[in-house]
Specification:
Strand content: under 5%
Number of helices: 8
Mean pLDDT: 94
Radius of gyration: 16 Å
CATH class: Mainly Alpha
Shape: globular
Oligomer: single chain
Structural class: mainly alpha
CATH topology: Four Helix Bundle (Hemerythrin (Met), subunit A)
Helix content: 55-70%
CATH architecture: Up-down Bundle
Number of domains: 1
Low-confidence stretches: none
């Protein structure tokens, strides 16, 4: 799982590196390429990008909720981690009819918002464990929902790119 990078600059650098790798895979895809099936379960490249964006948006909500209430409410308020697959399915269905251009635009804006939010966190905040003393730190949570998540789906997209050529 995510390395527990504690300092902000290391975390930002790792996120930027993995996101650049992901973006390089999506960049050459035209509309039909974004819409064609990329995974065995029927998800398209567009669906994968929308999925990454949905989890970035959750991350932003966690930070905001933590700042407001002291509890990030992960994965969503009223939802346990056992409901993660249902969240992913809900997000998939929500983005299914979106145009690839809209998903790309939302992804770019979301990534910028995530980077800004991380830049606003101090190294001390990144080391905090927002849910429990024995729980993950913010650095771990951020890493798991950015560069580790990008890496996971980058590997899927690399397979997709190989099959397309």
């Amino acid at each position: 799982m995510a390395d527990d990078l504690q300092d902000r600059q290391s975390l930002l650098a790792e996120i930027q590196r993995e996101r650049a790798n992901v973006d390089a895979l999506f960049a050459p895809l035209d509309e039909p390429g974004m819409m064609s099936v990329a995974r065995e379960d029927g998800w398209s490249a567009k669906d994968i990008l929308a999925h990454l964006t949905a989890w970035e948006q959750r991350l932003l909500a966690w930070v905001d909720r933590w700042r407001a209430t002291g509890n990030p409410g992960r994965p969503e308020v009223g939802v346990s981690w056992e409901g993660e697959d249902a969240l992913n399915e809900r997000d998939y269905l929500s983005a299914k009819e979106k145009a690839a251009a809209d998903v790309r635009s939302e992804a770019a804006a979301s990534y910028e918002a995530v980077m800004s939010a991380i830049e606003a966190l101090t190294d001390n905040e990144l080391a905090l464990q927002p849910e429990a003393a024995d729980g993950p730190s913010w650095a771990w949570i951020i890493g798991a929902n950015t560069y580790e998540h990008y890496r996971e789906h980058r590997e899927e997209m690399e397979l997709y790119a190989t099959r397309r050529t």
